[in-house]
Amino acid sequence: MKQIFERGITVMELLIVLAVLGIIFSVALPQFSKTRELQVLKSGVNDILSSINKARSQTLSSLNSSEYGVHFQADKVIIFKGIVFSAGATDNEIINITSPASIENFTFTEGNIYFHRISGAPSATGTVTISTTNYSKTITISATGMASVN
Fold this sequence. Notes:
- 33% of the residues lie in helices and 25% in strands.
- By secondary structure, it is α+β, with helices and mostly antiparallel strands.
């Protein structure tokens, strides 16, 4: 008598493979989400630090014989010319903060600092806190105008 072997996968084998894949995905996906959130926070911190340093550098080099400053909003940082922020100024440079990161807190009057031309010292010292759902970083601006992260 001739035996007939059928090739293919059984329902039980298919269920086992799906169960294993489900376990792998349930462990891996939250880790990818946290990694992305940390990368977005790091990017936001770098954008803020770059903006502060750029405004200070432009001031110290007396670019266009002017001071430069930084205005902080929840979803963006704006480099502005002069000592007073004007939202409609054409020479404002807007740097958007990628969601889910946002600027949660700043200790500057109206969210503005500017740098003095001769010394590069800021108009105020203080902190800026940028946060995501699970993480946050605080940027401190010292009396010399240097910015550092906690």
